[in-house]
């Protein structure tokens, strides 16, 4: 029996003594001692993807499945995540599941978790730490590959001619793995193609509101008649904000006008893609709960989990989408 569960057993024994003496306690039923306690540090609720990701975790880590989930929403602040990890260490949880906001700044607190012998499982994004042993496993997407898929699509849709390919790039939360991977793929492609012109890089922070705000401001400063070929948005919510800003400023979105590219491919984005407003949706799968549970079960069985687990992902264009695909979309 692990440390946390032995603490819970001791508390349970105490509660039985109290019950025998007629003293009431708030301790949970007998089954409580067998629950695996998971402390989860989520980024926030900045996007539809994130909400689906939290739902996936909450669906898997239930008491019926043998878990007690302590869920923390960091409201997009790394300092909140670091405090949550420290609190989980104090509470002696069995596992810490961390969706890190950005890659840097994790060495000390993950070292504290390691010293407390609590396995940390990274979900979605990665951390940039000197010692790989500071986390047990990582479950998420290959963001660089996602970016490469988007770049490949632009190469086909905008073949190299005399005409420039004018690109606006809306970045996600700066320093996050999703931003770093998707940005690197685009920047490398811009460096490779003489005709690709990066008009601007704007910080959309993965949200619809911020993207609408920064893009509206940028467009209002452009000379009349400025052509835009591609708007590369690093997630769906940014794409929704971008489409609104573009249309309000007289730009049409579509495969023969401004080509809006997005990442995530949630149901609402697929709908916009089927309508033709999003030219390409690159999938980023948020339903990671079952994979995280498999990692925990591997550790529970006394085995060492595979270090990196990547989810299968695809791309969508209008021609490939059907009502049926959209109906079946779980997020
Ligand atoms: O890290 C995954 C990214 O974070 C998703 O693309 C985005 O929607 C979320 O906020």
Written account of the structure:
The chain is α/β, with parallel strands linked by helices and 331 residues long. It contains 11 helices and 12 strands. The strands form 2 sheets. Strands 2-1-3-4-5-11 form a 6-stranded parallel β-sheet, with helices on both faces. Strands 7-6-8-9-10-12 form a 6-stranded mixed β-sheet, with helices on both faces. The two termini are 37 Å apart. The site of alpha-L-arabinofuranose (AHR) has 13 residues, from helix 2 and strand 9.
* Adjacency order of strands in the biggest sheet: 2-1-3-4-5-11
Rg calculated over all Cα atoms: 23 Å
Structure ligands: alpha-L-arabinofuranose
Amount of beta strand: 15-25%
Number of strands: 12
Helices and strands: which structural class? alpha/beta
Largest sheet: 6 strands, parallel
Q: Tell me the distance between the termini.
A: 37 Å
SSE sequence, one letter per element: HEHEHEHEEHEHEHEHEHEHEEH
Mean pLDDT, all residues? 93
Helix percent reads 40-55%
Number of DSSP helical runs = 11
Poorly predicted runs are: 6-13, 24-29
Please tell me what the overall shape is: elongated
Task: Characterize this entry briefly.
By secondary structure, the chain is of the alpha/beta class. It has eleven helices and twelve strands. 43% of the residues are buried.
Write the layout of secondary structure elements.
Blueprint (H helix, E strand, L loop, with lengths): L2 H18 L15 E7 L5 H13 L6 E7 L4 H13 L4 E4 L8 H9 L4 E5 L12 E4 L2 H15 L7 E7 L5 H16 L3 E8 L4 H13 L9 E4 L2 H13 L10 E6 L2 H9 L2 E6 L5 H12 L7 E3 L4 E2 L6 H6 L3
Alpha-L-arabinofuranose binds next to α2 and β9.
């Amino acid at each position: 029996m692990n440390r946390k569960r032995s603490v819970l057993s001791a508390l349970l024994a105490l509660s039985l003594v109290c019950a025998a003496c007629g003293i009431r306690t708030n301790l949970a039923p007998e089954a409580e001692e067998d629950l695996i306690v998971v402390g989860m540090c989520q980024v926030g609720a900045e996007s539809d993807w994130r909400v689906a990701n939290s739902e996936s975790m909450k669906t898997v880590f239930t008491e019926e499945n043998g878990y007690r989930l302590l869920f923390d929403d960091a409201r997009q602040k790394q300092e909140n995540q670091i405090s949550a990890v420290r609190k989980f260490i104090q509470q002696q949880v069995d596992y810490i599941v961390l969706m890190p906001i950005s890659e840097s700044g994790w060495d000390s607190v993950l070292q504290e978790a390691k010293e407390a012998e609590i396995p940390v499982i990274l979900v979605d994004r990665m951390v940039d730490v000197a010692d790989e042993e500071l986390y047990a496993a990582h479950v998420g997407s290959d963001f660089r590959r996602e970016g490469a898929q988007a770049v490949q699509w632009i190469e086909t849709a905008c073949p190299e001619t005399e005409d420039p390919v004018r690109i606006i790039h809306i970045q996600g939360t700066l320093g996050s793995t999703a931003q770093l991977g998707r940005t690197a793929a685009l920047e490398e492609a811009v460096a490779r193609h003489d005709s690709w012109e990066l008009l601007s890089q704007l910080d959309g922070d993965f949200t619809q509101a911020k993207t609408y705000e920064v893009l509206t401001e940028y467009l209002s400063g452009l000379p009349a008649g400025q052509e835009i070929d591609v708007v590369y948005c690093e997630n769906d919510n940014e794409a929704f904000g971008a489409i609104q800003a573009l249309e309000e400023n007289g730009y049409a979105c579509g495969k023969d006008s401004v080509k809006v590219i997005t990442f995530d491919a949630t149901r609402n984005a697929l709908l916009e893609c089927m309508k033709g407003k999003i030219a390409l949706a690159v999938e980023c799968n948020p339903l990671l709960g079952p994979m995280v549970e498999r990692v925990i079960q591997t550790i529970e069985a006394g085995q060492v989990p595979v270090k990196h687990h990547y989810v299968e992902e695809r791309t969508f264009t209008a021609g490939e989408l059907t009502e049926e695909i959209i109906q079946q979309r779980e997020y």
